[in-house]
């Protein structure tokens, strides 16, 4: 088996993004573009992955920790110079080296794998991944000789009129014979329009030595998109989103309007779940089978079990059981744990709360920092008073408690099993098991008072 290495170029600042965030850390469908590249490579049989970092090195390293080794390119003198920085790590090794830019997140594992296969089967010293672009502006052009073989790559800024007409572009992805690569890199000069050391110049250098150089052309230009500015970023997002949605549909998920459904890369969704329009599912969210999510819902880092409904609601960093009904217009805030068969109805906000099986808060409530047992009914408008301006306190509501409408539970407070709270109560003391707590002023009716008021005038 041939040794395989990969070098990811991710040291550039990305001036054209006009951003404080380093280019390769800009997310596409919730994941930094360079991480897409690294994750794709992890699916190939590659022995050693090296990422060249420079701008924002610490942040890039933190993000890719454990997935790649790193070398630093102190000054960004060009893509060839970037690869040179991996010389200490890889220079003396034998094998195939895949080089790919950190700003091409759409190149698929299949394409990378086909490129490597062709490279190894032909025994070429270099194989370039090329594509045909409708509009090749900005890309390096593949210049072929009379026999149709790749002769060299010319950067857009260095190209003459004839070369500018070429629509076959360099995708920035290559396979090299590792030893031939590092030998050729020593001969790359920076005499060009940008005064940079260009990696594509290695092709011409190898050709001059009569080495075999081939190209592998992908049919799909879209996947080779290099993200240099925000317009390309939106384009990459659109393409990636369509891919993700297709993957879920193939797995048995119904997506009513894929153009209006935004699912992050690593989200998992079970079959027979229906996603309605305007829904955003982010982060490491995991949704079970037979659920109905949306319309217009936002789910971030939540685990949701089976047959649960979420309608017009926002949920984050929480766990939701099966056969739960949420919404419309509910807000589940972080660290909530909603058990099976719960109902969280309209205009209910839940924060850092355990909500036991079969319990309900159907309308207009705020439940924060609470532990709610099983089969509890929280009446309309009831709230936990969890904050005194400085500290947060716990409210405990045991199994089978009935909280009447518009009650305030002033924490810290415990309502014990089976207790009833009369509507409109402000509960400041613990309520014993099976007791009825009434904590409100008694009603006084003053007979004929209104007539008296009127005659006083
Ligand atoms: C590059 C190729 C071009 C190709 C295009 C495909 C060169 C000279 N040109 O152009 O032929 O068509 O990609 O998308 O290689 N980087 C470093 N250090 C540097 C310079 C760049 O690490 O000193 C990294 C960048 O972070 C980026 C990648 O290399 O991820 C490509 O650099 P970029 O400036 O985007 O090159 P392009 O102009 O797109
Ligand atoms: Ca680029």
From TrEMBL:
Start and end residues of each Nucleotidyl transferase domain:
6-218
**Is Cell wall biogenesis/degradation among the key words of this record?**
yes
UniProt pathway: Nucleotide-sugar biosynthesis; UDP-N-acetyl-alpha-D-glucosamine biosynthesis; UDP-N-acetyl-alpha-D-glucosamine from N-acetyl-alpha-D-glucosamine 1-phosphate: step 1/1; Nucleotide-sugar biosynthesis; UDP-N-acetyl-alpha-D-glucosamine biosynthesis; N-acetyl-alpha-D-glucosamine 1-phosphate from alpha-D-glucosamine 6-phosphate (route II): step 2/2; Bacterial outer membrane biogenesis; LPS lipid A biosynthesis
Q: Where in the cell is it found?
A: Cytoplasm
This protein's major location comes to cytoplasm
GO MF, any single term? UDP-N-acetylglucosamine diphosphorylase activity
Sequence positions that bind UDP-N-acetyl-alpha-D-glucosamine: 9-12, 23, 73, 78-79, 140, 155, 170, 228, 333, 351, 366, 377
Provide the residue span(s) of the region labelled Pyrophosphorylase.
Answer: 1-230
Which co-factor is required?
Mg(2+)
- Where do the record's region annotations for Linker lie? 231-251
Which residues are recorded as binding Mg(2+)?
103, 228
Pfam families annotated for this entry? Hexapep (PF00132), NTP_transferase (PF00483)
- Give the family per the record: In the N-terminal section; belongs to the N-acetylglucosamine-1-phosphate uridyltransferase family. In the C-terminal section; belongs to the transferase hexapeptide repeat family.
What name has this protein been given in UniProt?
Bifunctional protein GlmU
Q: Which organism is it from?
A: Siminovitchia terrae (Bacillus terrae)
């Amino acid at each position: 088996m041939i040794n395989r290495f990969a070098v990811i170029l991710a040291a550039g600042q990305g001036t054209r993004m006009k951003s404080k965030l380093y280019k390769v850390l800009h997310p596409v469908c919730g994941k930094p573009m360079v991480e897409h590249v690294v994750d794709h490579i992890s699916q190939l049989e590659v022995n050693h992955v090296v990422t060249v970092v420079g701008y924002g090195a610490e942040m890039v390293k933190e993000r890719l920790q454990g997935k790649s080794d790193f070398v630093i390119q102190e000054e960004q003198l060009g893509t060839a110079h970037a690869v040179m920085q991996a010389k200490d790590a890889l220079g003396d090794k034998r094998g195939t080296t895949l080089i790919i830019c950190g700003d091409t997140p759409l190149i698929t594992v299949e394409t990378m794998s086909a490129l490597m296969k062709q490279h190894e089967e032909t025994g070429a010293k270099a194989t370039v991944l090329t594509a045909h672009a409708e509009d090749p502006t900005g890309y390096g052009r593949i210049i072929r000789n009379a026999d149709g073989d790749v002769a060299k790559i010319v950067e857009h800024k260095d190209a003459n009129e004839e070369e500018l007409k070429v629509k076959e572009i360099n995708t920035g992805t290559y396979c090299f014979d590792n030893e031939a690569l590092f030998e050729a890199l020593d001969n790359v000069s920076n005499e060009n329009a940008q005064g940079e050391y260009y990696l594509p110049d290695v092709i011409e250098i190898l050709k001059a030595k009569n080495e075999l150089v081939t190209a592998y052309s992908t049919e799909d230009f879209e996947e080779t998109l290099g993200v240099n500015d925000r317009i390309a970023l939106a384009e990459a997002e659109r393409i990636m989103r369509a891919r993700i949605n297709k993957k879920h549909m193939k797995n048995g998920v119904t997506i009513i309007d894929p153009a209006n459904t935004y699912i992050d890369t690593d989200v998992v969704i079970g079959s027979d779940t229906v996603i309605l329009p305007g829904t955003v599912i982010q982060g490491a969210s995991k949704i079970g089978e037979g659920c109905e999510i949306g319309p217009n819902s936002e789910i971030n880092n939540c685990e949701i079990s089976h047959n649960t409904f979420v309608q017009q609601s926002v949920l984050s960093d929480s766990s939701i059981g099966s056969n739960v009904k949420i919404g419309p217009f509910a807000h589940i805030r972080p660290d909530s744990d909603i058990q099976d068969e719960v109902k969280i109805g309209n205009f209910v906000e839940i924060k850092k709360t355990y909500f036991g099986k079969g319990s309900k808060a159907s309308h207009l409530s705020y439940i924060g920092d609470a532990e709610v047992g099983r089969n509890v009914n929280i009446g309309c408008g009831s709230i936990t008073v969890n904050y005194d301006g400085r500290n947060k306190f716990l409210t405990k509501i045991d199994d089978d408690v009935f909280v009447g409408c518009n009650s305030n539970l002033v924490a810290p407070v415990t309502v014990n099993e089976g207790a009833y709270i009369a509507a409109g109560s402000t509960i400041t003391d613990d309520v014993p098991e099976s007791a009825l707590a009434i904590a409100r002023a008694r009603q006084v009716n003053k007979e004929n008072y209104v007539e008296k008021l009127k005659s006083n005038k």
